[in-house]
Amino acid sequence: MPNKWLNTILFIAAAIGALLAYRAGKEHRQVLAKHTRLEARVGRLSIRDPSKAYVLALETGEELHFAWRLYIPADFNLRRKHSDGFGSRNANRTAYECMWRLMLRENDDGVLQVFFNNGVWDLGDRRMADLLRGRWDEVRIESLGAAAAAEVDTDEVATLIRIVMSDDLKKEAQQRFGESFVKPYETVLYQVQIGSERAFKEAGLDEL
Amino acid sequence: MSCERTTGRGSESGSNEAAPHERRVVLQWSLKTLFLLTAVVAVWVAYLHFCYKTPRLKRRIATMQGLACELVINDRQQIAAVRLPQMWSKGQRWDVYLPRGRYVIRLATREVGEEQLAPVVEEKPILAGRHQIELIRSEEDGGRRITVLVDGQGVIDSEEDASWNPGRGSGGTGVSRTNGKDAAEPLILSRDRFYQPITEGTSQTPEGPANGILLWIEQIAPASP
Fold it and tell me: pTM of the full predicted structure?
């Protein structure tokens, strides 16, 4: 008799558990599908150490269009510095994630422009656009976090993107437009550095 | 399950002389019981596993939805909107959901204040449902042309003269994300007010209503019951 009662109780528990597991599993599958879809858009960024910043480069499928997903820890106070002098500071008490985009395009006036998040500015003048038009394969572009998410420590200034002309392009630019045209772009055509406020100070890159 | 009770200490010959109530209990389980027990453990472990995993995934989804600028509709009776990433300098874009009802999209270019609405320059009806709205500003023939696209189709095309914009920059607000807003309230997509020149090289935020751009969606009739 006790055996019969125990079996009955176990059967009811199994039935209830099965129903709950089925419903929870169905919800989980839907949520997982949504998660997978979103992850395909914004990448998978694993935070191994919440006290450090992480940068993951994303595929945009477009030429000269770069995107990154960033994790910024609490109190990191992110600084960003562009090689043409632009920059920003962002103090933060809590950790957050954000997306950054950079695009290089020619505007209607034939001038090469850099678009970064919501800002846009010229990269050189028409001569630069003429020089680089159709020759972007001769330009070396290094993007942080392209192979895998990059870790940025609080005392480190990292290069988010670095665009460098080939030696042949520099030579041609010098011949066509003179040395004064090439000089500002000899080391780097365009570059964006990021790091904490502290890291920039320690590296002597404090001026904005 | 069956229980067998056997005698306790002492030899077999002496066991019958032990206290009759002292017996060792040996439990035996039937196959059916073992199977049911296994099933109970399995389904409840699975349930608890999903209870642990699903909320974590939901939290990550909320973060990723913000990063992806995905429109989130929490209540189909309310307006939802999200500002899309600006892909180039010319246009601002939004993904908007409007619940049942009748709406108009309105543009104002003058007397744009800090919070209030402004005199309408142009307006067009916009259907309930989901739309992508784009606001483009371009300069043509020395003037200032403002175009509003809804789902890729031009609905508003307004042109202002060169004096409309002092060219000292502007400051603005507008919806970045709302997952549920009363449809009876106007949805301000973009409020941009031009800075006023003070001297040759300085300008300031206008103190009162000023020239600029105010783009909003307003309900003109709620859904019929």
Answer: 0.78
> How many helices and strands in chain B, by DSSP H and E?
2, 15
Minimal Cβ distance to B33: which of A10, A27, A41: A10
Give the nearest chain B residue to A69 (CA atoms): B67
B179 lies within 8 A of chain A by CB: no
| Residue at B211: amino acid letter | N
Are B112 and B210 within 8 A, CB to CB? Answer: yes
What tokens were used for B149? 């696209």
Taking CB atoms and an 8 Å limit, are A42 and B54 in contact across chains?
A: no
User: Where are the strands (E) in chain A, listed by range?
Assistant: 53-58, 65-72, 78-82, 87-90, 96-106, 112-116, 119-122, 139-143, 150-152, 157-165, 190-196
Give pLDDT tens digits for B142-192.
Answer: 558 899 999 999 999 999 888 888 877 778 888 889 989 999 999 999 998
Half-sphere exposure of B145 (CA within 13 A, CB side): 9
Q: How far apart are CA A198 and CA A44, in angstroms?
A: 28
Which residues on A lie below 8 Å from B1 (Cβ)? 2-3, 6
